[in-house]
């Protein structure tokens, strides 16, 4: 028997309420900040991600789904959401729009990695990107949006971690000191970190192996090597976050997993949870658009996995509203009333209400049980007597009371519910 591929999951009807709840909160909040929605293709030219994410990253080296299509082109299923938005910004001339351009999106993301709780090979992400403004006030705005989203969802036992990794001008000196420090620890770090030491030293701080994490705690700190502009940006960001009453902690090991980040990086994690439980993360990427062939364009954004948010909603006991069910079940008494019942269900739906026709040829009692099982509050009973009188019987399933009403009057009440 076929099963969903490893690292993927079906989103069943009973789970949909969590996804719809998150999406509704995210859309409302993003729009209140002036963001517009963008949707990009699920696959892109493979070079887009190699160039943006970085050749030495785990994503490019181990996790991307890259293949040759029938036309001989190398394409990659989207492993993250930022690079496609930057590509669209360039392709559609969005630099000609009033800056900054604020965009949000929902998208599936594909990474070949070891499945675990809240982490899948195909997962879904909500993200925002702001392109065209380098002011640290924009950083604070993006972080505030992420912080408010978590609270609006009901996730309040959370912590915000921030760091600055400097810009491309100030970073070489820091990288040199970082390499010197880790070179002295080369016998104690994992094999992946020995490879990172040569190819991507900043990622040494991001290693999840416990022994490497301990070494990273004593490593040189990026904020101690910021150039004057980056230091001013860092100090103003912290000032703005304090003014907005957003609590934060500085994590000197926080670098994120992608090469394009500059200056501000941040993550939101549940209380008493490690980096593997991050529910939101992002940062500034001022060189990415230029790296993709555009003119220098500052940018910042974040991404948040919907599966991991759902997991934390359940763990936190957040009450999520059920998806709305139909208001009416149309029950027919006798086979002769089956076609009129079908017609009535259709007319109810056209009038703007939700309705289903009872299943099969059950007795009336069985149709009532079906309504209870589906959580439908009203049953419309239609039999030969009701048809001959032009009436319907409306049964309230909560009170077990029922009344007969003219069919035309009932349908008019659906079209004018306030009357």
Give an overview of the whole structure.
The protein is of the alpha+beta class and 419 residues long. The protein has two domains: 13-170 and 226-315, BirA Bifunctional Protein, domain 2 (2-Layer Sandwich), CATH 3.30.930.10; 328-413, Anticodon-binding domain (Rossmann fold, 3-Layer(aba) Sandwich), CATH 3.40.50. Helices cover 38% and strands 21% of the residues. The strands form three sheets. An eight-stranded mixed beta sheet has the order 1-5-6-11-10-9-7-8, sandwiched between helices. It has a five-stranded mixed beta sheet with strand order 13-12-14-15-16, with helices on both faces. A hairpin with a 5-residue loop joins strand 3 (66-68) and strand 4. Helix 1 runs antiparallel to helix 5 (136-153) and helix 5 packs parallel to helix 9. It is elongated and about 90 Å long. The model has no long low-confidence stretch (mean pLDDT 91).
């Amino acid at each position: 028997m076929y099963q969903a591929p490893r690292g993927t999951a079906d989103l069943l009807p009973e789970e949909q309420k969590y996804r719809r709840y998150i999406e509704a909160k995210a859309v409302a909040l993003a729009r209140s900040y002036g963001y517009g929605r963008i949707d990009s293709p699920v696959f892109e030219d493979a070079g887009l991600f190699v160039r943006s994410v970085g050749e030495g990253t785990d994503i490019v080296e181990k996790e991307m789904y890259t293949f040759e299509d029938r036309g001989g082109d190398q394409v990659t299923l989207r492993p993250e959401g930022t690079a496609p938005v930057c590509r669209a910004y360039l392709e559609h001339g969005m630099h000609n729009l009033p800056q900054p351009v604020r965009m949000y999106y929902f998208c599936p993301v594909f990474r070949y990695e070891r499945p675990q709780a809240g982490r899948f090979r195909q997962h879904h992400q909500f993200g925002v990107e702001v392109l065209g403004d380098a002011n640290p006030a924009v950083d604070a705005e993006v972080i505030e949006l992420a912080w408010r989203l978590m609270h609006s969802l009901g996730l309040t036992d959370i912590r915000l971690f921030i760091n600055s990794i400097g810009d491309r001008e100030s970073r070489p000196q820091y990288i040199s000191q970082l390499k010197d420090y880790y070179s002295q620890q080369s016998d104690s770090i994992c094999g992946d970190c020995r490879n990172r030491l040569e190819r991507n030293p900043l990622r040494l701080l991001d290693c999840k192996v416990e022994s490497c994490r301990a070494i990273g705690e004593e490593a040189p700190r990026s904020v101690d090597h910021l150039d004057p502009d980056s230091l001013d940006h860092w100090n103003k960001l912290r000032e703005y976050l304090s003014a907005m009453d957003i609590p934060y902690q500085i994590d000197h090991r926080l670098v994120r997993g992608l090469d394009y980040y500059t200056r501000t990086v941040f993550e939101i994690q549940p209380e008493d949870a490690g980096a593997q439980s991050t529910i939101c993360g992002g940062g500034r990427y001022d060189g990415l658009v230029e790296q993709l062939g555009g003119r220098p364009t500052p940018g910042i954004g974040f991404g948040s996995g919907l599966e991991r948010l759902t997991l934390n909603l359940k763990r936190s006991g957040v009450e999520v509203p059920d998806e709305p069910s139909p208001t009416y079940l149309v029950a027919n008494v006798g086979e002769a009333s089956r076609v009129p019942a079908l017609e009535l269900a259709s007319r109810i739906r056209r009038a703007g209400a939700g309705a289903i026709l009872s299943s099969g040829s059950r007795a009336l009692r069985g149709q009532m049980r079906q309504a209870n099982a589906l959580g439908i509050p009203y049953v419309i009973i239609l039999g030969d007597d009701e048809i001959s009188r032009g009436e319907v019987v409306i049964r309230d399933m909560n009170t077990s009371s029922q009344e007969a009403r003219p069919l035309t009057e009932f349908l008019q009440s659906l079209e004018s519910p306030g009357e």
